Amino acid sequence: MKYVSTRSTDKDGVTSAYAIKTGLAGDGGLYMPETIPSPGNGFFESLIEMSYTERAVKILSLYLTDYTTDELTEDVEGAYSESKFGANPAPVSYLDEKTAMLELWHGPTSAFKDMALQLMPRLFVRALRKCNETRKALILVATSGDTGKAALEGYRDVPGTAVKVFYPTDGVSRVQKLQMQTQEGDNLSVVGIEGNFDDAQNGVKRIFGDPKMAKELDELGVFLSSANSINWGRLVPQIVYYVSAYCDLVKDGRIRFGDPIDVCVPTGNFGNIFGCYIAKKMGLPVGRLICASNSNNVLTDFFKTGTYDRNRPFFTTVSPSMDILISSNLERLLYITLGPYKTREYMKELASNGRYALEKGDLELIKSVFSGYYTDEEGTKKTVKDVFENKKHLIDTHTAVAVHSACEYRDENEVNGILLVVSTASAYKFAKDVYGAITGVDNIDGVEALDALSELTGVEIPIPLANLTNKKIRHGSSISKEDMDEAVREFAKN
Length: 494
Ligand SMILES: *Cc1c(COP(=O)(O)O)cnc(C)c1O
Hints:
Largest sheet: 6 strands, mixed
Oligomer: single chain
Bound molecules: pyridoxal-5'-phosphate
Low-confidence stretches: none
């Protein structure tokens, strides 16, 4: 299987290892497999009796054809080991007769990004070797919370790599900050930036674009790389859990093989939901895809009107991992639906005007699969409370956005089958807001909220979060944004 850029008609593709090593294509586009495999019903049925890791190897083998089965098996088993994810990495639970929840937060950082970021570093290290890259990869991350921690945990002590994370000192939650400041591992560094997320992000972009920096690092035997969600290595593991969830629904007797299910995903960068779209393209019986946004509802408007417009106010919400105005992976949907020419034109417009408007026929194609909904702050909190009180399920704020959207979708449409809602974080990761939503108390400290929420609900705190306050602070420093370049240089020397 070769990989091609979303913006190019050049059909000479690259290997999956090369796509994973480089992340972005040379023309600024994103890598996509040249065709989506359609392995047939027999393939999906054969997975029903398998474990998660066995299913994962079968699916990844279709895409990462320059990796051997042995390599993929070793990587998948290492990534989703019981010590990291418990017995089942992506279990399905049930809110009621017709609503299933796909729980993606059983990994080491209690959010769904672990599903990709536990596996990708392993694929990445193999990719370096397959591409004869002998330099050390320095992964630079600017984070508003979840990605930074998941990248640190994923790349921790991975040979041939080092990670440096920048986060806004006053722009992440107490729990998120503690998670990063107490991070263990010998190949990583975490620094606060006196500024907001944009300052951290712009600093990282500046460093990536600086040829002098690249040359200096090269002399040290180091090159810069990124772990962000446009890398194919982060997307491909996200196909697996949709297929796996479908198999579990069959196994649990909730559906018969072949019955379509609708899927609702809390969305920011459009990476998670895109994994489901690919699974559908492969032939998995998925009906409608419901894209759930928070008040930063640029995607809801897009699916309704065909106009993508990032020129709008930015809101800081209780579902911060979805506070995004540019959903990078949407480009991949444009590519599959409309082809590279149109994708390139629309992306050009986005870069120069911050907006583009689809032609009517193009919008119809996309609307035949996707529906967009959004949930405001009040609706999010109310849903956390309702679901806890009426369904006895403790959900986090991101998942609440999706549950609310799923209900709206159901109210407006005739839905008979199972609706699968994707649950992307443990409620404890956002304990302060979840506790506030249920009790109305909002002046509680972020760490105290962990215990308070556990006392209130009787639900156990995930171990990595429960141990947080006993851990030593290893990365307490904070620097000004002007000093980021120097911090990278210093780190590269070690
Ligand atoms: C990152 C994240 C999302 C959004 O996922 P995308 O792939 O960016 O659409 C939703 N919920 C949580 C908890 C996240 O960390």
